[in-house]
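Input record (one chain):
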Amino acid sequence: MPFSNKIAYNPPTVHYRDVMASDGGVCDWTKKIVHSRCSYQHLELTNSNKKARYGFCYVEGCPITPQATQKLLERIAFIRHTHYGGFWDFTSDLSSKDTAYTSLALNAHTDTTYFSEPAGLQMFHLLSHEEGVGGASLLIDGFRAASILSVEDPHAYRTLMDVKVPTHASGNEGISIQPYAPFPVLNHHPVTGLLTQVRWNNDDRATMDQWRYFEESEDWYEAARKWTDVLQRETSQYWEQLRPGKPLIFDNWRVLHGRSAFTGKRRLCGGYISRDDFVSRYRMTNSTREEVLREL
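The corresponding structure, as predicted from the sequence alone:
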């Protein structure tokens, strides 16, 4: 189901002991994160997609250590390694040249748009926040935002699903990661036409100078402005202060995240999981092997 700022009254949550105890706990956990693919004509606000889940989930009662958090994340699948490493344990010390490693506010975005296949899941666990305030986390349902945009301005929606956006990660010495081809903001399944992925990160965007026709640049920037307007609406933004012992995991293909600026020293840990590994784990814990194989 799509979520708005009202999800704050009852956010999806599971308990650490249940996830660690059995695959039944993993079944319940992944079921809250996974989403049904939605189409351009019938996005997540329609009755046909009631089976779609939230796209994120908290885990209550996690021990406040990187070791316990890593074991929790690995209950889903192998941790995906990138130029940031595998499992992270970091503070705002700019050890990596990325705005996430600062105390600055971060606008809503999805991670790793510069990879040909962006990370599927992302986990954050706030281990400590000393001598300061701020740092509230922001989540936005990208599918809900796309649904709103498609109703309010179909041309802007089509522009964001058609125009390819070049991206890169070149902040660290010796690194310049770029996907094999540019991708649009709103990506759809090549067979079904269903919306499957949002790729939105202003800080990762490279120079856009390969327009197919003169008006396309004006169309794209106007569509981006209207998309940003939807993202910045109060009803779109769910804010929550992370706290030790309660990791957050979310679908990076659907949910945009950000944070407010903060003071003091924060220590977080977490990591990425690939989309295919996550979906495999979801299928094999929510269905029998025979049921999965019959669908092939």
